[in-house]
Every structure is written in structure tokens, then in C-alpha cells.
Amino acid sequence: MSSVTSSQDARLRELVLLRRVRDRIDREYAQPLDVQALARGVHLSAGHLSRQFRAVYGESPYSYLMTRRIERAMTLLRRGDMSVTEVCFAVGCSSLGTFSTRFSEVVGMSPSTYRRLAAGDAEGIPSCVAKQVMRPIRNREAAASRAT
């Protein structure tokens, strides 16, 4: 077996591990997850996982986790039957301040403002479509799309 094939096999194995981490974040976003725990789960160092995850997915594991949490929070806030504090804890955040700050960074408005303005926005839209249409766009991504 050549060294090229060997390095390709190693790269594919690493991509499988990174996909496992991403799938775990998608499944367990409401659990207390940190980069150390995610790295231990796939037998990588936290630094290596962070570097490789960012190279493959364009953001750090923590940023990806917070985006998943914000997406879920948006859904819960649109329903309107939970307070912002309840939503914060339901999506796995342990600090209302951090949650509100991150939500505002990603969505462009505070959770309470979003809750008030978005109530009923998804009525009559199948949930699979609503998830795609109402997915958060980071402020810097929105600015980039406006510039093109």
C-alpha cells in the first residue's frame, strides 16, 4: 500500500470522526457538552478536534453547538408557550446572559424581541420547511450576502 493511499485512508477516518462529533452535537445539543468531552468521545485531543472541525465545517465545535442551540431556541420562542429563561435552559444553556448575547449575535435581535415578533411566523408551514426557511443567518453572513 502506498503512502498516498495510507494518508487518504487516515484522512477519511478522521472525517468519519468529525462527522460523529457533528452528529453528536446535533443529537445532544441540550446536554452539557464541551470540546474536551467531544474530543474524548472520538479519542482526539481537544486542540486537534477544534482545528480539524473548523477546517472541515468552517466553525469551531463550540460555535456549531451554539448555532444548533439557537436554532432550537428560535423554534421554541416562535411557539410562544415558554419564557425566554425556560427556553434558555431547555436548549442546554446554563447562563441566561450568555444565551441572550449569543442569540442576539446570531439572530440580530434579543430573544424576547424575537419571541414577540416571530410568534406565529411558522403557522401553516410544515416543520421541515420552517426549519430551513427560518434558520438563523449570522450577522456577518447576512452582511456578506448583501454585499454580493
Automatic annotation (TrEMBL):
Keyword Transcription regulation: yes
PANTHER family tied to this protein: HTH-TYPE TRANSCRIPTIONAL ACTIVATOR RHAS-RELATED, TRANSCRIPTIONAL REGULATORY PROTEIN
Organism from which the protein derives: Nonomuraea terrae
Gene3D superfamilies named in the record: Homeodomain-like (1.10.10.60)
InterPro entries named among the record's database cross-references: AraC_XylS_family_regulators, Homeodomain-like_sf, HTH_AraC
Start and end residues of each HTH araC/xylS-type domain: 19-117
Lineage: Bacteria, Bacillati, Actinomycetota, Actinomycetes, Streptosporangiales
Record-given protein name: AraC family transcriptional regulator
Swiss-Prot/TrEMBL keywords: DNA-binding, Transcription, Transcription regulation
Pfam family, one: HTH_18
GO molecular function, one term: DNA-binding transcription factor activity
Keyword match Acetylation: no
